[in-house]
Amino acid sequence: MYIIAGLGNPGKKYENTRHNLGFITVDRLADKDGVSVTRKKFDALVGEDNIGGEKVLLMKPQTYMNESGRAIAQAVKFYKVDLSHLIVIYDDFDIKEGSIRIRKFGSAGTHNGMRSIVSCLGSDRFPRLRVGTGVENKGDIVDFVLGGFSKSEKSMMEQAVDTAVDALRCYVTEDIDKAMNIYNSKRSGGNK
User: Fold this and answer.
1) Which pairing describes strands 44-51 and 39-41: parallel, antiparallel, or unpaired?
2) Closest alpha carbon to 58 in 162, 137, 169
3) Could you read off the pLDDT tens digit of each residue along the chain, which spans 192 residues?
4) Residues 6 or more apart in contact with residue 173 via CB below 8 angstroms
């Protein structure tokens, strides 16, 4: 079994913001698979998917970004999922806009949602998929991440989310090394 958890903030106010790219990616995967992520469990909205014969719990924590770890830790404990079978999707302004990066593990960096997860799990040894938003000369960081996409960004970010969905499928059906080799790139679309 796998857990795919997208980070974001609940509510209409945050729906189409950069900080909700984790939610947006989980929703895109769910839509493509005809899965609903609406059941309330573990302080999250969840849905069950099947990818390549593997059971996958799709999660969108509803605790707000800074407390995301609470929901994810509950699900990991309940299902006794090995941390290598948990992948967390989130926005990252330190990565070029429109690109994605997959890592097997690592520090939480400056992302408060990831800090919460690392703290609640007591480990940083789990995969993550970061969707780059870039931030060069975009003003206040908080306003930037909580802001919506400009017209020029929208198409690029939709491509990045579609690439992230493909990478998630590869991670589940193949392995993380293959997903990293194919999808880690300077721009969305990778070196496929």
Assistant:
1) antiparallel
2) 169
3) 999 999 998 888 777 776 788 999 999 999 999 999 999 999 999 999 999 999 999 999 999 888 999 999 999 999 999 999 999 999 886 788 788 899 999 877 767 888 999 999 999 999 999 987 776 555 555 555 555 656 667 666 788 889 999 999 999 999 999 999 999 864 444 433
4) 51, 52, 54
The one catalytic residue in 19, 60, 85, 111 is 19
Can you give the pTM of this predicted structure? 0.86
Q: For 30-41, b where at least 16 C-beta lie within 10 A, e where not — what string? A: beeeebebeeee
- Tokens coding 182: 């194919």
Name the residue type at position 19.
Answer: H
Report the C-alpha gap between 106 and 117 in whole angstroms. Answer: 12
CA distance linking residue 85 with residue 125, whole number of Å: 11
Return the closest-CA partner of residue 52 out of 143, 173, 141. Answer: 173
Other C-beta atoms closer than 10 Å to the C-beta of 130 total 26
CA separation for the pair 148, 151 (Å, rounded): 10
Told to judge if 85 belongs to the known catalytic residues of this protein, a careful annotator would answer no
Tokens representing residue 47 in the block: 């849905």
DSSP 107: -
Cα gap 187→101, rounded to integer Å: 10
